[in-house]
Each structure stands twice: as structure tokens, then as C-alpha cells.
Amino acid sequence: MLLLLLLLLLLLLLLLLLLLLLLLLLLLLLLLLLLLLLPLLLLLLLLLLLLLLLLLLVLLLLVPLLPPPPPPPPLLLLLPLLLLLLPLLLLLLLLLLPLLLLLLLLLLLLLLLLLLLLLLLPLLLLLLLLLLILLLLLLLLLLLLLLQLLLLLLLLLLLLLHHHHHHHHHHSQ
């Protein structure tokens, strides 16, 4: 009976230990996730800023490219010219827009690739770390189990010896 009770107690303790370890692991994982997500958000913000800067740069570059305004002739003469130039300007804009968009997309893709590489490196390292931690935990558990087995064996031996000794003593009387 005693042995059974002891065994049950030991098993319960083991289960509790396992639960605690699992909880710890979960906490660690959550922390890691948070740490991983923070840089991602920061990087997204940076990307947005970069895009805005790029747009500004493009605008600044385009402004000097526009022809400097000629000394204003009479407005009546300018009207037909303007009417002629407007479609041309529109065409140019339509042609340039897709190109600009393509360039921006390419830049974004490159940035994303870089980000992915940067993000994957720590992830791989973290996975390795997690595996190591798990292995260590398993080793610890095995050691605990061995210790418990040894303790149980010792208890059994003690009980047997005690019992035997007691019996023997009784017999000699």
C-alpha cells in the first residue's frame, strides 16, 4: 500500500513538473514572437517612410526637368500652344507613371527579400535554440526519472531489509 501511494505521489509530481515546463516553454515562445514582431512593425514603418521619401525625390527631380517658363507672350498666343501641349503632357505622364510604378515595385520587392532574409536568420537560430532547450529538458526529465527509480529501488530494499530483519529477529526469540 505504502509503495503504491509513493508511486502515485511521484507520478503526480512528475506530471506537475511537466506542466510547469510546458508553461515555461509557452511563455518563452510568446516572448520570442513578440520580439520577432516588433522589428517587423518597425521595418514596415521604415518602408513607408522610404516610399514617401522616394516620391518626394521623384517630384523634386521632375520639377527641374520641366521646361522653365518662357517670358510670357500675350495670352492669346499662348492658348493654342497650351491646347497643343496638354495632350502631349498627358501622354508623357501616362507613359511615365507605369515606369515609376514598376521601379517602386521592384524596390519594394528587393526590400522585402532583404527583410525576409534578415527575419529568417534569427528564426533559424531561435529554432536551433528551442531544439537545444527541448533536448536539455528531456535529459533533465530522464535524469529525474532515473533518480526516482533509484529512490524507489532504495525504498523497496529498505522495506525488504527492514521486514526481513524484523522477521529474523522475531524468529530468534
How helical, in percent, are the residues? over 70%
Give the uncertain stretches in residue-range form. none
Order of helices and strands: HH
Q: How many domains, as an integer?
A: 1
Mean pLDDT: 85
Structural class: mainly alpha
Main beta sheet: none
Which descriptor suits the 3D outline? rod-shaped
Output the number of helix runs: 2
- Number of beta-strand segments: 0
Description:
With 173 residues, the protein is an all-alpha fold. It has one domain (2-59, 85-172). The chain contains two helices and no strands. It has helices spanning 2-65, 75-172. The mean pLDDT is 85. Helix 1 (2-65) runs antiparallel to helix 2 (75-172). 94% of the residues lie in helices and 0% in strands. The chain crosses the membrane at residues 6-33, 40-63, 75-95, 100-121, 127-160. It comes from Dreissena polymorpha (Zebra mussel). This is ABC transmembrane type-1 domain-containing protein. Keywords: Membrane, Transmembrane, Transmembrane helix.
List key phrases describing it.
single chain, 173 residues, mainly alpha, 2 helices, ABC transmembrane type-1 domain-containing protein
Topology of this protein?
Elements: H1 2-65, H2 75-172
Helix pairs in contact: 1-2
Question: Quick gist of this model?
Answer:
The chain has 173 residues and is mainly alpha-helical.
